[in-house]
Design a protein that fits this description.
Number of strands: 9
Distance between the termini: 33 Å
Number of domains: 2
CATH architecture of the largest domain: Beta Barrel
Radius of gyration: 22 Å
Amino acid sequence: MEKLKTEKEVVGFYISGHPLDQYKFEIDNFCNTDLGKFNNMDDLRGKILRIGGIVTDISHRTSRNGNPFGILTLEDYNGSYSFYLFSDDYLKYKQFFEVGWFLYIKGTVSPQKWRNDELEFKIQEMNLLSDIREKLCKGITLSVNLEDVTEAFADQLEEFIKEHPGNCVISCQVHDVEENVIAELMSRKYKIGTENEVFEQLENQLRIEYSVTTT
């Protein structure tokens, strides 16, 4: 992180990576848009948006009426955007105004309260990006081909799940390619954790494709 920070300060952009790389799982599975698309709010009108990024700038200010408000600038892989928070929103979320923090923000694009011809992003929820995996990951579905399902494979998979217990429901889709049939099975006995190691081993060691469910 210090190396990346220095790169950004010296040349204006990251060279050896991006701070968000450590949250690739969260970005891929729980975010549905990026900050680069905020340049055209019309395309986002009425949609529930979920974004993740790193805080690059903050400002605590006071309006002419003496009311506090804040400006929080978030950056992701494709752009940055400054969120203006007033009144209750500012009081509710000002604890997240820390440069270098990684945030997950959920909200919608709608007309401004006092200017209906202009759109704004209304924040509904803000969390640390590091906290959302456990909150949002409700299930993992493994996808395997019928021809690969052997007794040895089943034993290996069971042992793997035992080694990584957790609260995430496990289900399995078994594909019979010849008959074009998919059998969906759910484990009533085991649940699995959501650590990085789990998904790395599923991909690289067991070579099993998976998808994540959030509801």
